Amino acid sequence: MKFFHLADLHLGIRVNEFSMIDDQRHILGEILRLAETHKPQAVLIAGDVYDKATPTTEAVKLLGDFLVGLSRLNIAVYMIPGNHDNAERLAFAAPLLENSGLYIAQAYNGEIAHFSATDDFGNLNFWLLPYIKPAAVRQFFPENTIKSYNDAVAAVLQNAYNKIDRSQRNILLAHQFITGATTSQSEEIYIGGLENVNAELFAAFDYVALGHLHRPQAILRDSLRYSGTPLKYSLSEVSHEKTVTVVDILQKGDLKIAELPLNPVKNMQEIKGKFAEISQNATNDYVYITLTDELEEPHAISRLQRIFPNLMKLQYENSRTKAEFSPKAAVNTKLPLDLLQELYTAQNGSSMTAEQADYSADLLQKIKEDLI
Fold first, then answer.
1. Residues 206-227 pLDDT 10s
2. What whole-number distance in Å separates Cα of residue 135 and Cα of residue 149?
3. Mean pLDDT confidence for 144-152
4. Considering the entire predicted model, what is its pTM?
5. How many C-beta neighbours within 10 Å does residue 207 have?
């Protein structure tokens, strides 16, 4: 069976106050054209379908049009909610939609939903694990001590392993942060690394279709993979090559993975140099501009916007800005637990004990969960 692996569509997202809905409409059209050419039997969408729990009308319609397009091509869809999605809203009428080949994971209820398909090599099982947090899992496993995301995923998968036939091919969709993966600016980083999940937990699955991180990448093995976003959503993604991941799974243990490049209607790039040089190279792309002129150009933003209509951000980098840089600016890049440990050391003249660090991480995580 051949399938496309997608994730992190973030339909309805605004980047630096620019609506990306037209770009997303174009790129989903590109994916439909690729599907028509390469003829996958299924499309996997591994979470963060929308950018907000309450998506815009435009975003909902865009997803509907995309799913209808896949249905017309006779392609089954397996989809899970990510941390940006409202699981109940995304899975509205899910049991009814299964009759149309659309399988959507609902909020975790103690079991991982799974669906079976067949091909020339026998049964193939799709396991749909929605994004989970420790607080959502504890009630189902009162006998387990579940403090971290790793604890939560371990409990959930251990419970599922009793039902998995390992002689068959098993595909998992999940939306979690796997330890060792590379992040981007447009992703949310959780306190103290508690969101990390060990890759070894997924050993029972022939392929793990991951969502959550925006850079396409494999972790430990080719078949434990993030597809990445179909578009660039932050400056840190400028160098990313956005693709559709194509997986062709034959008999058990035999799968082929490829990536099909995606061509956005507008790319995203970073431009650095002097005003006079930069202003000679107009583009319709989304741009982040860094001016290196020692003297600020009068009305630089308005002048550059005439040349770069999709200017996302303008900043200066010169001897003055470098002199003004203070180590305090680095505070914004540190995790809350790191800052708390630094404060403790400064006040007490010694570092936290491991027990104190664990307690602090737990407390900060509870605060975080209350805010989400």
1. 999 999 999 999 999 999 999 9
2. 9
3. 91
4. 0.84
5. 26
